[in-house]
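During the reporting period the student researcher (J.K.) took over the structure-prediction task from the postdoctoral fellow and processed the backlog of single-chain submissions. One of the processed entries is reproduced below for the supervisory committee.
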Amino acid sequence: MKDGPISLIVVDMQKGMKEPAAGVRNNPDAERNILTLLTAWRNASWPVVHVRHISRTPDSPFWPGRPGAEFQPELAPLDDEHVVEKNVPDAFVHTGLERWLHVRGLGQVVIVGVSTNHSIESTARSAGNLGFKTTVVSDATFTFAQEDYAGIPRTADEVHAMSLANLAGEYTTIVSAAEALKLPGSRRPL
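J.K. obtained the following structure tokens:
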């Protein structure tokens, strides 16, 4: 797919991600960096996609109608911004996102949001595999501490770093928010 305007994909920035039950996280400035990018994209009239996870599990904070499923107010979509609802980590599975991007000639995507090792990693892998020029913003994504497969506790920073390492090169380019603000491919500079 050829380069064209760049679409910002904001993944799962919902109120439930701020609940203490979500766990210990990294990148405390991620929301600020996401807002900086979102503001720049809006000022440049670049396309923005907001992805919302809608759980199939009734006791989940992301169950439809629960406060946790709502977008965080400061990162909520504007009326003219596209919203995708998903039920699995990957924003491309059964959502029409790929078609929406193709119809608009959008060959580049910049992915931000949560969580790095789940929705960000799976969405970025699909984007890369589908031929999109894919960028993940390291300081505009975050994740949570968890145990690895061997039962060893890993910090959120360790989980985040390994997830980014899984993506780097083969599926996506990893950049900082400052670097993302300088990406080429738009009709207007940021």
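The committee noted the following: Residues 185-190 have pLDDT under 50 and may be disordered.
J.K. will present the remaining backlog at the next meeting.
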